[in-house]
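batch_manifest entry 22 of 60
target: Fe2OG dioxygenase domain-containing protein
source organism: Populus trichocarpa
requested by: lab member K.T.
priority: normal
notes from requester: please return tokens only, no post-processing; we will run our own comparison against the previous entry in this batch. if the run fails, retry once and flag.
--- input ---
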Amino acid sequence: MGIDIYKYHVSAPPNIHLCLSFSMDSPLKLQEQSKGFLFDSVLHKQAGFPKEFLWPDLVRAQQELSEPLVDLEGFFKGDEEATKQAANIIKDACSRHGFFQVINHGVDPNVIRDAEDYMDHFFRLPVSEKLKARRMPGSLCGYSGAHADRYASKLPWKETLSFRYHENSSDLVVLDFFKSALGNDFEQTGMVYQKYCEAMMDLSFAILELLAISLGVDRKLYRKFFEDGFSILRCNFYPPCQEPGNTLGTGPHCDSNSITILHQDQVGGLEIFTNKVWQTIPPLQGALIINIGDTFTALSNGKYKSCLHRAMVNQHEQRKSLAFFLSPREDKVVRPPQELVCSEGKRMYPDFTWLNLSRFVQNHYRADDSTLQNFTNWSQSVNL
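--- output ---
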């Protein structure tokens, strides 16, 4: 590729392999060259299939995930029986794999449609323009091409744009991001995503309340915990790929945040690993997908699972998705309620902050199904 990239290993306990890629020359210059080359010459122009995108020995999904839908209409109307039924479905799904779909979720379909449509305003820009919003090393926000600034192999076949959101009606943080990074021409785009994040936050509070009910704790407990949190919205763009059997749009990973709300377009591609096989979650018009992340696994004292999932690419069609990652305030201590500890008889994970877990994943570790346990081992070894 003409880019000199090497593997950098960070000091860690013997049972943890920590690996990131860093450019050996001017980091910013090579990041720009790398991203520009990968996406202008490879992903969009299909100039051969580069080995950096190869995922060897891919196993195809064998079946479709079959789960009852969680209907939120009764919950929003204050129907206790319907609320109990929704909480029971959530409890069953989260105890096994941590994925469920919600319908009648109260999010305006026009808000979702606009958020999906406005992705084109950014991803159709020339690479040089997209790089104005580039994600800096160690940051969660900005533009990334195939995460080429972080990894040297098994690159995902996608582009992403990520930005922060926090609950403060007087602070239009999403709008400000677009205007500062891309200029006033993107003011309307910023407003579209500001509204989308606000809708996702409202839905997050409802999901948190149902999660608390399903776990048998104070129904407002988790909602209060996240009221001053910071969230991330990530726009994912997956170009068509001539060799979809050789690569992935997003590699297998568990989310390290608390809960994720995903909207995927009708192309599809989301798969989860459960019951020892990969299973697809086909798009369902009007539904949103919710999944548990590692942070909520710790908040539930291990009762609810974060699950490996991945995104496939399509040979003929581009795919778009929107992932809203809910997280607590960075310095807030992640600790399960005492009643869950008592029911298990012990703490499954020690106290930690979201900031430390986030830094571990961004700077030291490629997320997988062992992230939370390896973070625990690592943090204890360095006395965080």
